[in-house]
Amino acid sequence: MNLERRLGPASLRLWGLILNFLANVLLLYGAVGFVSDGSRGLALGVGLVVTVACIGVLSTPRR
Amino acid sequence: MDAALTLGAGTLTAAMLSGATFGYKTVWLLWLSMGLGLFMMAAMARFTALGKGAVALQNQHHGWLIGSLMTALVGTAAVAVVFNYGQYSLGTHLIESLAARLGFHFPRQVNWVLYLVVTSWLTLSYGRGGKRGIRFVETFMKASIAVMLVAFGACLYVTGVDWSAALRGAVVPWLPPGGPGIDLFVASSAAAIGVMDWFLFNQAGLARGWGKEHEPLARFDMTVGLFLPFVIVNFLVMAVFAETLFEAGTRPETAAELATALEPVLGSSWAPILFYVGFLAVPISTTVGMSIAGAMAIHEAFGWEHRTDRWRWRIAALLPQIGFLAVWYPRPVWLVIAIGAFLSLTDNIVAWSFYLLLNDDNAVGEGRSRSRWWNVGLMLQVTLLNSIAIIYVLNRLGWWFGGGGP
User: Which domain holds residue A18?
Assistant: First the structure.
């Protein structure tokens, strides 16, 4: 994947950072519920998977 | 210089509190937090090797808001002013305690003048006579770290070490259960090195005249000159408190209370004096480092040449000395809240900016990152800093642990 390709006003690399941030929000929001009373497991799971995926993809250096 | 800057009153207080509260159980966070921070420091070393100032690069590619404002003026210069209150508070308390130990009365309402004179002189020595002045201040910083190592090491010699518990704490991750565990992990791992450390490492390298051939030296410097001193000094402090106050079940809350509580445990001979001397090196070296970083930041923000012989430099470098007011008043709460909020919400944006710059052909050309692992480290750091910003907002909304929920 060419992360330097522009999509609208920003590069895919910047959009990836924004997606990672949103996934981090979901992850922490889910973590509060899950640790407190076992709720929001889905939010925690989705947040975790997307965060790991974003880190994996965004770590690709420019060729 | 970065190690002396990082080893400030806040960091050492956190190590003391961890040792007194959890014993050796959180030693692993020391190497993990600093290890993660090194990826961003390596990015700074790359910018330095290319002869580029980090803020100038940000201004050129991401705009003045992210470079001059978020990184230089607030992330570094304002932080230097606000955080120096804590250094003054601790430093003058330690001078008073040390004097009392040596048999004379030297209250903080008077000794702050000595603190001000010494730290101002050291700060203004930077760059005096060109590279000679830079070397002098850097040597002072190294000597400060050496004093901390000897002093805290000697205290640990008195208290002894439970090596088995220490080793277990270093390799077995442990956190307190629930919300406090998440708070401790995120705060410890993201806050070991911040914007000011990144900025200073870049600028100090440029001031030394480092170029392409110095990048391996810069990486060696951040490992031997930052990672090791940070981990060892914090471990020594944590261990002293794990062996004394943790065992005794005493839980003081501030650095001054911690130091006072430790004094009788160390006995009545030379150990408490050495502890105070070593501890005094912490705020003094941090005040000097922060003052220099603050002056550099103000100059970078406005694109001014770093002329240390100019009054403009001297005034910028001495701004953090307003912290002497801490002897009578606590830090202005509204300012601490404002700066804390700004930092929590913008440090991650600054990290995004540096990650993007390191991967941008237009910014660093052939010097761009070619390592997946380097980028993984940067992304982990970015994610932790994102978490700080998110937790800050969730806290304000009352949606974080103990806030009642949405």
Answer: 11-58
